[in-house]
């Protein structure tokens, strides 16, 4: 199976060089995301055999804006939800619900502490279904003492990630790698391939049998990661070609 992040891994905004790529997402009549025609062709081939699982921080609404390919499984909201044929997986939903019930440090305690650091550098904040939180930030004005708060998060079993202008606060029991492990066990998979571009993808790609990361990725450069030779939208083609080469006997 092929587990992959979407944005900046397989699909790209016009912040990247877009030529004759396929428009795959619109919002209010505005073009949002594109995909290489070659990547799309290869993904559809995988989808026909239920071999592709998208893994994204997008909400269900945001994920469903993406057209052109349908998958049996989709991991959304950073692993907080798993879709099976477009419907919420109730078993995983129950697991996440129970994890929230048993959570030692609730979100109100996190935000009470965060008030000490908030300021004009926070441009927008979003609560994603009471599961995790993200902020649009002014990266040039992050407080010098913010690492004190990040240490507080870590001590209290929360994770954080800064990706460009987005900053995430997520409880540790919500993660892409945990959701991937659930699907892997459910499908009795022995070997799988993973790709992603951010630190929210790091553990997911490290636990995979094989990984390939876009050269332009913001992910921490740690041992065990493999990078494409190409950047931008062409990296997605290289990733799919590598997967197909490794798992050719399954796909054909």
TrEMBL record:
Cross-referenced Gene3D superfamilies: HAD superfamily/HAD-like
SUPFAM superfamilies referenced in this protein's UniProt entry, alphabetically: HAD-like
Record protein name field: Sucrose phosphatase-like domain-containing protein
Lineage of source species: Bacteria, Thermotogati, Thermotogota, Thermotogae, Petrotogales
């Amino acid at each position: 199976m092929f587990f992959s992040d979407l944005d900046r891994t397989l699909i790209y905004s016009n912040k990247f060089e877009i030529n004759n790529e396929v428009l795959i997402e619109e919002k209010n009549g505005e073009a949002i995301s594109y995909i290489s025609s070659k990547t799309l062709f290869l993904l559809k081939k995988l989808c026909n055999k239920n071999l592709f699982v998208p893994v994204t921080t997008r909400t269900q609404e945001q994920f469903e804006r993406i057209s052109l390919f349908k998958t049996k499984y989709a991991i959304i909201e950073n692993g907080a939800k798993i879709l099976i044929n477009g419907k919420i997986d109730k078993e995983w939903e129950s697991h996440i619900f129970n994890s929230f019930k048993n959570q030692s440090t609730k979100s109100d305690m996190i935000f009470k502490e965060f008030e000490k650091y908030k300021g004009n550098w926070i441009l927008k904040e979003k609560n994603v279904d009471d599961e995790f939180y993200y902020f649009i930030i002014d990266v040039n004005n992050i407080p010098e003492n913010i690492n004190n708060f990040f240490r507080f998060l870590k001590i209290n079993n929360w994770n954080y990630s800064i990706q460009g202008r987005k900053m995430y606060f997520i409880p540790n029991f919500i993660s892409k790698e945990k959701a991937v492990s659930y699907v892997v066990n459910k499908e009795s998979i022995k070997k799988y391939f993973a790709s992603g571009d951010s630190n929210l993808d790091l553990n997911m790609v490290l636990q995979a049998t094989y990984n390939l990361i876009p050269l332009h990725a913001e992910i921490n450069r740690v041992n065990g990661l493999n990078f494409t030779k190409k950047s931008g939208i062409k990296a997605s083609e290289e990733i799919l070609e590598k997967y197909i080469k490794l798992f050719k006997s399954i796909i054909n």
